Amino acid sequence: MSAVKKVALITGANRGLGLETARQLGKQGITVLLGARDLAKSETAAAALKKEGIDARAVKLDVGNAADYAAVAAQIEKEFGRLDILVNNAGIFLDSRGPNETSKTSQEILHKTFDTNFFDVVALTQALLPLVKKSAAGRIVNLSSILGSLTLHATKGSYVYDAKTFAYNASKAALNSFTIHLAHELAGTKIKVNSAHPGWVKTDMGGEGAQMEIVDGVKTSVELATLPEDGPTGGYFHMGKSLPW
């Protein structure tokens, strides 16, 4: 490991997948910045990680608030001079979990879902990219979902064929497109950009029936956040395996 500690920012990191991602990165000796809308909750989470010997810092970061982007960027620039890892973990699921009701999906649900799961991710990444470019090996991980796979949704009999939650699925497909486009722009640099499907994880969002434990659900994100120089970019992965777009 380099003598200079890496610095990672994880959004939505006060609980669930975000917190566990911070924990596993922190255990690798990486300084982890826990982004959360509620600073008090971020501080509580950071304090818990510190008790485990992890260099964790609380950061107020509401992904829907552009003013927070500037403040976080200024803080990172001042304290570290760069950002090595950005894990865009924060996301929401507002669709009904019942039968396919695409034609009834409200504009409000579509806008709220896309704001958090797509537009805010793009805006935050754009704001922090100058700092990632200062890293010797920048890594950007976008938390997607297998539900964002257009190929699988169009393939009758596939694992997700009947899981038609329109707003969420479409937002993750759009996020995957961002991954592809940004990775293409940054090809030839030391920055790698990838989409991660965590699995069907036992979180509030995962809901009833989820099969994976949180500790396993973050393995893909952690792997992509710490890829070696010859690792992939512009991909869509789960547990080391490529997923169809």
TrEMBL record:
GO MF term list: oxidoreductase activity, acting on the CH-OH group of donors, NAD or NADP as acceptor
Keywords: NADP, Oxidoreductase
Entries under InterPro entries matching the protein: CBR1-like (IPR045313), NAD(P)-bd_dom_sf (IPR036291), SDR_fam (IPR002347)
Top-level taxonomic group: Bacteria
Protein family according to the UniProt entry: Belongs to the short-chain dehydrogenases/reductases (SDR) family.
Protein name: Short-chain dehydrogenase
Organism: Edaphobacter acidisoli
Lineage: Bacteria, Pseudomonadati, Acidobacteriota, Terriglobia, Terriglobales
